[in-house]
Design brief:
Number of strands: 0
Number of helices: 14
Distance between the termini: 30 Å
Shape: globular
Strand content: under 5%
Length: 317
Amino acid sequence: MHKSIVVSMTFKGFYKNSGFLVQVTMLLVIAIFGAIASSLLFYIVLIAKGMLAVDTLGDSTLLYHNPEMFRVMLFFQSLGVFFFPALVLAYLFHDDKNAYLQLNNPSSFKIALFVFVSMIVVQPFVNLVAELNNMIRLPEFLKAVESWMIGMEEEAQQLTESILQADNLLSLLSNIAIVAVVAAVGEEFFFRGVLQQVFRKVFRNEHAIIWTVAIIFSAVHLQFYGFIPRMLLGAYFGYLLYYTKNLWIPVLAHFTNNAFGVVGYYFLQNTSNSDFIDALGTGADRWAGVVSFLLWAAFFVLIVKCTKKGRSPEIIQ
């Protein structure tokens, strides 16, 4: 018993003083291991529940026709690839994982409220940026790459619509729990909580850290025609962590963004205005996207004013 305690204490903060390459390697190894483990658990659960037969393991099209199966996959993916690896990495990289992840720093209800509202008002601007992103076309010699990117985007769109289809309150609550809560917590713990700390081994400029992680955050989703709006959201989440020093604040922002889409789709999916939320701020309504940006900027200024401006980030090593 005493021996196991000694071993546990040995690995706690074991890589605290390691360099960037060592920590990035550890991050990749643990994330890959988590991806493999979560995939195995996903298939085991589906087979055990009778939702999947062994001879259909390689048929990815099943996800399009079974929202429940897709929800299970997202649940295990969010936990296995992002959340648990973030906890393990924080444990290995610091003597106090909560301090490393910035979970215990105080915030205020006012900041949380401003963040929540900012994520609502920014939606038309996000749609506007997404529309502009969709207009980007690659040169002729990269047409094959562009076709692959468009195919990936269409597949991602089909998968998203598959999971968002909910015909009862229980399905809606399930989507909120998995798409909004679990995904937001897992991704923010991994990208903002850990990756922003790791990149402090390379950059001393906080803006370089935030935007580098935002680019990685967007690229990992493999939705190239949604790359720019997702990158901008990732940067906003990064700045929220920088100013508030509280990881739960970007988690709240991420949750609000995802939950807004889930709830909006649920109430509009069977109406003539099913595309209203995604279309607001685009086309003839681009003015709404501009107004949306101005409103979001005003709330961001309020958030910054509620924190200690100019405070240097705590370099946690």
